[in-house]
Each structure stands twice: as structure tokens, then as C-alpha cells.
Design a protein that fits this description.
Layout (H helix, E strand, L loop, with lengths): L4 H4 L5 E2 L7 E2 L7 H24 L3 H9 L2 H24 L4 H12 L4 H9 L4 H26 L12 H24 L4 H27 L3 H4 L2 H24 L4 H12 L3 H11 L2 H4 L5 H36 L1
Antiparallel strand pairs: 1-2
Amino acid sequence: MNNTANLTSHQDLWRNVTAANTTWVYRPAVNSAISNATSVVVIIIVFITMISLGCTTEVSKIKYHLMKPKGLAIAVVAQYVIMPLTAFCLAKGFQFSDITAVVVLVCGCCPGGTLSNTMTLALKGDMNLSIVMTSCSTLLTMGMMPLLLYLYCQGFPSVRNAVPYVQIILSLVLILVPCGIGILINTYRPQYSKRITKVGIIIMLIFTVETLILTAIGIGRYVLTVLSPSLLAIAGLMPLIGYCFGYIFSAIFRLSHREGRTVSMETGCQNAPLCTTILKVAFPDEVVGPLYLFPTVYLVFQLLEAAMIIMLFWCYQRFRRKEKGYGDQS
């Protein structure tokens, strides 16, 4: 018997509070063809994203940071301590149903994505550290995600033995394959790397729009479940906490401001497409329901909050330049 069946039998899986206090379990009303098409498109998006990530990874840079591992070690610890712990505390604090808590935990245990590299560039951070950290956290996630989910799910008794660890590991293995392909391309055919990355971004945007359209057609009326005030609060708080504590964590261990900004972005930015893929592939539709859309909501808040931080940083730099100019004139 599939362990995930234990999740659907839990009375708090989907809670619909009415005058009669009725409780119901989600049953997918979406056409199976649309559901399958959405799953395929999501996998394609992640496949392209991971190839692009691999194409930005240089083995020589990984070797350099492995030889001087202080910054990388601090960044990885920040990634796999701050975010999973934040997800667990928020899920407990908001008293989510167990399956909702698991979705939040999966998101919190995901590695950094390529978005963090773009944000690090905008913040004038250490790009070498950013790319190496994204690559290493992605490689480590095959072991770290199942381990962290196992540890934190002890706090949710009804899902303690119901999380599909094997399916999650298989999903991660399949996802790491395109990343390896990208690294090989960048190592042996570097002249194609930038072109593949640019084309990949365009294709990824097209498929992302297609996913949103299929989702709207299939389960549009259930999207409000993901847009509940508590889940919106989680989606807003998690990346903000990651950005702030990532920088504080790096400052405690006396990394440079440049490295601190890098660790901040790498900690707060989770790989939302990877999270969506895991939820779609590892969990049955009748278990996860529309909650597989939560990473998309999380991604929106990631972008908005990172954009605000970048704007504040640019304003600070501009003010400093003006202040320095006035000082030189006097």
C-alpha cells in the first residue's frame, strides 16, 4: 500500500470551515490529460533550467572554492539550516494541516536556483561563490532534502512515515542529470554555453506561461486555496527571513560584505521550479491538490523582496558616491 494514502485519510488535509464545521478531502476535478500535460511541462521547465545552471558552472571555480571552503561552507550551512528551520517554525506557528506543512517544508529544503545568481549580479556580489554555491547546494540536495524532511516531519505525526522519500530521491536524481549535461557542455564545448543559456531562458518563459494557462483551465477554482492569508504570509516571510539571516550569518563569521550579499541571496532564493516538480512527481494529485502552486506564489514574493533589496542597495551606493563627491570637492 502506498504510504501517501495516509495523507489523504488525515482529517485536516483540506479544511473547509462552514457553519456546520464540515471537513472535506480534496478530490482532483481536473481532467487527467490536463494534469499530465502540466506535469510534463513542469518537468521540461526544470530540465531546461538545470541545463542552463550547468552551463554557468566551471569546474575550476568549484575546485578553487573547495580549496578555500570557508565562504562555501558557511553558505551551504546557511542554506540547509536557516531555510528548513524557518519553514518548520512557520508551519508550526501557523498550525497548518500536515500536508500543507510538508509542502512548505519541501519548499524550505530546496536548494538555491539560478534566480539567486541574477540577484547576486545585481547586488554586485561574488558571482563565483554564487554559482559554486548554487551548484553545490543542488548536488547536496539529493541527500540533504530527504534527511531534513525525515527530521522535521517527526514534528507532524500523521505524515512521519507517509512522505514518499524514494520518489523524491528519484526526482532529484533525474533533475541532476541535465545539470551534469550542462557542466559537460560548459567544460568541453564552452562556446555553446551562453547561447544555450539564452535560448533556455526564452523557452523556460514560454513553458511557464503555458503551465499557468493549463493550471487556470484545470484547477482555476481551487487556486484560492493557495492564496489563503496564512499561506501568503508564509510565502512572504520565508524569503525575507532567508535574505536577512543569510547576511547576518555571514557577518557573524566575518565574510566580506560582497560575500555576505551573495550568501543572503543564495539563502533566500529557493529553486521554485524544482519544488513544483517534486510536488507534481512525488506526490499524487489527490494528496497535494492545488498546493503544488505554492512554490509559484513563493517565487513571486522572492522576486518582489529581492527587487526591493536591490533598489535599496542601488540607492545606498548612489548616496555614498554623492557623499564621496562632496567630500572631494571640500
